[in-house]
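### Sample
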Amino acid sequence: MSSLQPVRGTHDLIGETQRRHAHVVETARRIAGLYGFDEWATPIFEDTRVFARSLGDTSDVVSKEMYSFEDRGGESLTLRPEGTAGVCRALVTNGLTQSLPQKVFYAGPMFRYERPQKGRYRQFHQIGVELIGAAEPLADAEAIAMGRDILQALGIADETVLELNTLGDAESRTAWRAALVAYFTEVKDQLSEDSRTRLERNPLRILDSKAPQDRALVADAPMIGAFLTDDARAFWDGLRSALDLLGVPFRENPGIVRGLDYYGHTAFEFVTERLGAQGTVLAGGRYDGLVAEMGGPRTPAIGWAGGIERLSMLLEATPPAPRPVAIVPLGDTAGGVSVTLLQALRANGVRAEIAYRGNAKRRLERANRIGATHAVLIGEDEIARGVAQVKALDEGSQAEIALDAVAAYLAGAVRG
Ligand code: ATP
Ligand code: MG
């Protein structure tokens, strides 16, 4: 058999990579908690309609990136390409549409059939939040402030800029869409093939195109500002003053439209220049129509998702590997006492390991290799006297400690 490789666009998370990844998730979970968000975990696969309905069939995700398959029962299922649709589906199917607002945090893998490159994978991971059941601009501002706080806690806020836009309400977008159709129809021949299709089906999508020949035309396209209704403008003003109040700096960018169809009013991205073309690290917006798409009542909502791989790449330092205490029995008779002590250490919250084989010298070498802070040496003589030699490996110092006091001693020492 030829050697097995991970599937193109997927990665194993091991060692430093996993520690960076976990640090992003734990930091986001902690900050989301401060804002009153609870964690949900929804299934990795859903009925295909959950995504096809909600993301919009002209979005790149639905039109070409979904991992869909028929299961043995003949159902069409899809590996989730994003988290919001599943959370909205869960809100409805768990009967929570009358218990609003719901403030949801999630983290986990997402799947998209994309061309793999730096910062773009087929299995990638997101942290995300959804604030469902709040129509006020303060909700949008809080969700955005939480994203900014997470970037700050990760030490990467200074690497990013918040780009903010409004997509207006339905009436504003209808007028804007008409203007876009008129504009792009004039230059249709210069558009990419994908964008010529978008022009027919969803002209707003052209603004999100990554094709270079489209980018040039997009720069001069009509922008939403001129088409905002009074209501939409009031919301936009409210959002910007709430962000000021929360101390969140932003840059207005009328080109931000987001890749999925369900957004209205607020659209934003935290972008960095450090990741090349894959510069968006955390992005989202308001999606007041999505819960209704899932069969629930019309429910206002705002959310965002951040790419864990991209956030991990920006981290200045890798969180250090945890350091254990190593038990080193000297000779055959020390085995029983060593194992008892091992469990006592763990019961006291100390990370503790014992090598399964090897003489004392080998075991000490291993203690150093795994980065142990201390080695606990137990020989016949120690057992006879009811003590152990506790060696601090960084300092090279050694202390004789009563066996029944070793766990408490080391619990104190590793806590520093
Ligand atoms: P992009 O414009 O980069 O394709 P998107 O608009 O498709 O992003 P969203 O669906 O809003 O992205 O997802 C939110 C975040 O998830 C992105 O900003 C990015 O950080 C991350 N992300 C999206 N797709 C991928 C991917 N294929 N690989 C790694 N991270 C991704
Ligand atoms: Mg994409």
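The two ends are 51 Å apart (CA to CA). This sample (Histidine--tRNA ligase) is used throughout the tutorial notebook.
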